[in-house]
Design goal:
heterodimer, A: 99 residues, alpha/beta, Transcription Regulator spoIIAA, 4-stranded mixed sheet, 4 strands, 48% helix, B: 273 residues, alpha+beta, Phosphatase 2c, domain 1, 23% strand, elongated
Chain lengths: 99, 273
């Protein structure tokens, strides 16, 4: 699992997650993702290159979204693949975070 | 003695390799111990045999779970809350190991407590969700499906909290996912839950499962999937609840060529007689 960050225009940070967001993947990016959500206030998480989303991956995203909300920021998810979109929709987490 | 005080480069390399191996063995043993503890917690919470319930031949129910080597947080429950009804629950906690097993046991206990205090399915799930959200700094969560079958008239009222939709298998062989979804438990305080209702006729059944079934992969990397599950169930429509569960779990084992599951596999079936 990789996390690639790109500072976009108007203060919006684009962060692409790449790979399988299973337990190992979620653990690998947990620390850099947590640091990112503490340092930025407008985050778009690009999921287009995430091939699989497990429940621990959902938890990582939820923790990030909560951190953003507590700091007055906003995190949204973008471009999930169909299988990831299905997981986000069925769990209700897509509705909580915003896709 | 001189060698110990002034080790040669070869000895230093050997010592480093031995230290790394010892650390790895310790880590792996600790992980095995943790998973063994998690498995004990998980198994202790599973319900007894539904055949022991006073179903009086009105319904046939059976559940089974195959825990992954790295134990996940699957759970299921079958009990009679009174009034000639059968409650069926299935769920999946995020993560693995002892933290997931502990949250699983907390979720099951909370659901059982809420079922004693509230009559309607939405009220039960709203109360359970409130209790799980109340002390949850780690943002653990559990998908859950809760259904109650009236054994007299076949009405099946259910609430789906973010779980993969169970399948309804009609006596005529049609197989459809139950409509309606929701949000996993533990994430959204104050979330209002919506219930849905269908009616089962004699010979109809419901099949609840966790995503460990549909996300099982074969040696080529293909997922078992919902279509394959529905097809297997349709082929098993003449069978009772236990045989349906075994048919699906055996099919998944064949599909994965006997590989250890990477996630818990749980199935719960009920057939109205």
């Amino acid at each position: 699992m990789e996390l690639v960050v790109d500072e976009g225009p108007a203060g919006v940070t684009q962060a692409a997650l790449i790979g399988r967001m299973d337990i190992d993947g979620a653990q690998k990016i947990e620390t850099p993702f947590r640091v990112l959500t503490r340092l930025r206030r407008a985050l778009v998480i690009d999921l287009s290159q995430v091939s699989f989303m497990a429940s621990m991956g959902l938890r990582t995203l939820m923790v990030g979204a909560r951190t953003q909300a507590e700091l007055g920021g906003k995190l949204v998810l973008a471009s999930p693949q169909p299988n990831v979109e299905k997981v986000l929709r069925e769990s209700g987490i897509g509705e909580i975070i915003g896709v | 003695m001189d060698d110990l005080n002034n080790p040669s480069p070869e000895m230093r390399t050997f010592a480093d390799a031995f230290r790394r191996l010892a650390l790895q063995i310790t880590r792996e043993r600790r992980q095995r111990d943790e998973m063994a503890s998690a498995a004990l917690i998980q198994r202790a919470m599973l319900p007894g045999d539904p055949a022991d319930l006073p179903l009086d031949g009105r319904c046939d129910a059976f559940g089974d779970m195959q825990a992954a080597r790295d134990v996940g947080g699957d759970f299921y429950d079958v009990f009679m809350p009174g009034g000639g009804r059968l409650a069926l629950t299935i769920g999946d906690v995020c993560g693995k190991g002892v933290p997931a097993a502990l949250f699983m046991s907390q979720t099951m206990t909370t659901l059982r407590m809420a079922a004693r205090q509230h009559a309607s399915a939405p009220a039960i799930l709203e109360a359970a969700n409130a209790m799980l959200c109340a002390h949850n700094p780690s943002l653990m969560f559990a998908t859950a499906f809760w259904g109650v079958l009236d054994l007299a008239d076949g009405r099946f009222e259910y609430v789906n909290c973010g779980h993969c939709p169970p399948l309804i298998l009609r006596a005529d062989g049609s197989c459809e996912p139950l409509p309606g979804g929701g949000t996993a438990l533990g994430l959204a305080p104050g979330k209002r839950m919506a219930s849905h209702e269908i009616t089962l006729r004699p010979g109809d059944g419901v099949f609840l499962y966790t995503d460990g079934v549909t996300e099982s992969i074969d040696p080529g990397g293909e997922e078992y999937g919902e279509a394959r599950l529905a097809a297997r169930l349709c082929a098993a429509r003449a069978l009772g609840a236990e045989a349906r569960v075994k048919a699906v779990m055996d099919d998944v084992a064949r599909f994965t060529a006997g590989a250890d599951p990477f996630d818990d596999i749980t199935c719960l079936a009920a057939v109205l007689n």
